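Let us begin with a simple case.
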Amino acid sequence: MPISQNLMGQNLPFQTEPSSRTIISETGIFDEEICLGAIIGVTARLDRDNALIQHLADHSTPSLCFSVLKEGNFFLLVHEEDKFARLNKQLCTGLSKATSNQQIRLQAYITREDAMLAVQKRYGERLLPIEINIYAPLHFSDDVGAKLSKSHIFLQPLRYGLGERRYMNPHVLRFEGRPNDELFHYSTIPGSEEIDPNYSSSDESLSDDVDEIDMDDMFGVQLEAW
């Protein structure tokens, strides 16, 4: 049975409260796990490389996937119960507020090339460039999105881990009457109208008309001390 259009209502840009929804009687719709989007342009500090080396040996895929679990005040990357990397303090604080419900699930993805470079580095801090996917039941999507926005963390289109799940980003503007796959992403940069789904955090600029943006300011998650 199709979901009523008002069930798909999203927050207005940077709205701080979840939008209201009409509750329908079908069981399971609001418990369905969906993908809310990805946090991109962030890093995890590699503390132990044994788990990462083992994962590289066991998988030949272009990207590697790891669970992200909370321990104390920090979120850690885990492989087969081996905790080997952690996110920075400011990102952990924002994620703690947004994922206080136990049904929220996080997964981190890193390219094979970046993982190998981190393992091979012998001196200095070893950072893993990662993307973090957020999965949650449908009825938590607006609440998670609003809390992330308050922490200046904005979800982007994901490159990994969608599978058969629905993708419904709470930081995306949907217009009534348009197909669900015609999405308009909220801009996190003043003056720009849309974020290109093919955007990479390694891009030097987003547009010829937009001044160069400091990515740390844009995502608000990387300048804090570990």
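The second case is a distinct protein. As before, the sequence precedes its structure tokens.
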Amino acid sequence: MNKKSLINILLFSCFIFNIQNVVFAKGQFVVVAKTTLPHGQNYELTKLQDGRILISEFTQLNSSLDNPIPEEKRFLKRFEIYNPKTKKFEKISQPKIWHYYYTKPIVLDDGKVLLVGSFCQMGPLEKDVTPFQLKMCTQSQYAEVYNPINDTYKIVGKLQIPRSYFGITKLNNGKVLITNGVSDYIYKYDKNGKADYYETNANKPTTRFSELYDPIAETFTLNSQTAVDIRRKHVKVGDARYEYDYYINNIKSKPKPVYPKGDLRNKLPELQETIYDVPQNDISRQTVTLNNNEILVLWLHLGTAEIYNSATNTFRRLPNFQLKFRDSRNPEIVHKIPDGRVVIIGGKTGRTDNNAVEIFDYKTETVKYIGTIPITGDGIYHSLLLPSGKVLIYGGILRNNSIWKGYNPIHSMLLYDPITNTTEIIDESPKNFILGKSIILDDGSIFFVASVNGKTCGVIYKNSEL
């Protein structure tokens, strides 16, 4: 395809008018169509059995005094399908339940798609809990199954433990394993029946219990306990209520953090101190199916991991799993490469990015620090494991200054080879593109959801060097 043809595609597919800013790179970027719905950062791309791509997003609008939005209109569901054969996006029906941002769809053996994600994390102040939030929490404890053939949803089993930010993996027997996550909120009511307080109830099962979803019975059952026991503690200081991760298997491993002067958390008693603050999106959601069919459950922000054996239905902690960078490590990049090892790249400590490359060997159950790669930005960057075993890394932003008044997208695309431990800049995306998540199509090309001049589009990328 020549440059003139490509410009025409850009013009007519995504309403691009500023063609002088289009940069043509080594590979071929083709904007195929505009999505039927806008998408932010919380979507997932899932390949269906017929080769189509499900784009699924649960998102939430921010309400403010200047722009008030009724609570029942803040929670949005944006589902659609990209058809590689027609190169078009297809409108589909929307789920019945708003689950949660990090709901990862699982394609079951029969081709249907399981949606699991509980929305039971409320505001930090007791008075902020509303009847609508309680209703959302109750509904979201039920899973849904989407049938892409007839475009219908069916509400199926109920989670035994309401949870979000969990790991989810389909096992070889077709069942779905759910591990860990966040779920502390058991509600108490005042004399008028209004929820006025919620706390961890020690007499209830916690997310240390895994669950199994049986697609035949369409039910969830409590399963064995995980080897890593991490709980959250709630402490009130004045009118504020703070959450903490405190003990891992009853071992405190970090001193009390030092907060800025005037921060109420400085008044917390020592006995109620924790390892460190862990944002909810740092809770372990990373699971990898190893070559021996065991499941690796990664707690990267805590520098620990465990193994689930489906044959014995047991978890065991890996004592020799030691990462070089441990603080709030939440990498986007975790991939099992063809030789069975697991590559872990990136991570964050506050506003500092760790560009470390570490590789887990499932045979020795140890982690080896390899070095660093030239990821120069921060924020959200993406990756894609290629059939060659190499990892394509792209995205991220350069902050303009320390208080984040603005940002500049990073357009360079890196190719990391875990065998030779080398990295090269393989390409550069056009300057008016902001590439989002990606997936490999059946024909081997790479499909991106991207912002092109502010419009959400589908982009096909081909590069003979990959």
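The CA atoms of residues 213 and 220 lie 4 Å apart. The first helix runs from residue 3 to 14.
Keep these points in mind for the review questions at the end of the chapter.
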